[in-house]
Fold this protein.
Amino acid sequence: MAVSKRAALLGGALIVIAVAAAPAEGARAPRAHRDAARHGPSVSGALLALKSSGALSASDYSRDYGAYVSAKRALAKLRGTRRTELGAVLDNVRAIAAARGFIPSRLPALFMTLERNRQWWTSEPLIHAGERVSFPPSKLVWQYYPGQGIEIQWLGTFGAANGYYLAGNENSNLRQLLGEVLALATERAGGLAWEYLFKFDGGVPPWTSGLSQGTALQVLARAWSRFKEAALLGAAQRALAVFTAPPPTGVRVKTPAGAYYAEYTYAPRDKIINGFIQALVGLYDYASITKDPAGLALFEAGDAEARVEVPGYDTGAWSLYDQFSESNLNYHELLTEFLQHLCTRTMKGPPFPPTPPAPAPAPESPPPAATGGGTSAPVAAAAPTIPAIAGDAIYCTTAQRFTVDLHTPPVVVLLSKKLRGGVRAGVQVSLSKVSTVRLTVHRGARVVWRNSAIVERGKPRLLWPTPAKGGTFTATVTATDPAGNFATASGTISVSHR
């Protein structure tokens, strides 16, 4: 993916919810997705086929088909934003049907989403991008994505469940919310997943995320430890499957060191580090609580890769969000917090001690040496062991550095000394981290030019249409990083006569 920053479906702080950036309005689905919507089964036909095969009960068929008909009727009466949003949700339902994605386990979440959007856009107020809403008495968290309607925000939902768990006195709300969550799980990758059912930054539904799935593991294991209900443990065990399957079904991306767990099943090459680290926190907690060897193996594979990856996301002045761009303030703080969580866990050691391997059988006695002065073959020396850097050393140190970055001003230097006159010149600066940079050009006491832009680290240029007559000018640049730290630099620029 180019350098555009993919808007992660973030929550955090075990878990304090951060509002996700919405995808661009009007983003078009890939051509294959649009073609499938034109040529595959219709919603009505797909539902009827499931009913005829016995995969869908008559009552469930009536519920889902009724939601579809009601949404179409409501759409015909709507205008403007309301029509756009409900229409987008209907289009997603049709596209999933056409792609033969109507499996029984997916339908409850899919048609609940359609019904909730019919309800919202026909009777509720217009809301802002990223705003979260609910439908009491349900505890599910929904979020508005402009151009895609309101959608179940699974990370927000699992974050709310974590909040109920950590409160200690919200067991009834925790039970209710997890009951709703389990009813909406979809069969995926041979296990269970909680799917996002809308288009997002180039991805088409249904898709899921290592970040949300890891947080699901965490809260399901925690709830099982409190309630000892088999359904919670069983769901958590089945939710591991997404971490064993490669994209686009699962999130496991095999690496030489172990495995990277992708943020999005449709974008395996995007290495969004905060989502990967939180997935590892979820896997650690799951394995620690359940003592499941499968969970331990998945954590260890991801942990091995994270030890390789994490240092590369430290620029020395700020954090990277992915392989391309620096974090905004929210993501920098969130990554710092996730690393702190992983730091405290790995300092304790593995989630639980692995079962030691069975001792190797004693070697047989060597045959007697051959006569004539021969000797036994020498025993090969064991290869030297190179101690690995402890995971906690990497996670803790990086978190500490990112904390310091929050209080360290950027370093900005004016590089341009001479420019040609009468051109749209670029005044070049050296910048240590992403900042809002402001350029002010004076000739004597008079301001002749101002410009500002948010730019990332490196040697960016800020526009200045230089005067054709040339002259000597004083340029001042200021840089304010995302945390509000400020720095300034100034110098003289000589502009030649054109």
Summary: Residues 244 and 252 are 6 Å apart (CA to CA). The first strand starts at residue 132 and ends at 133.
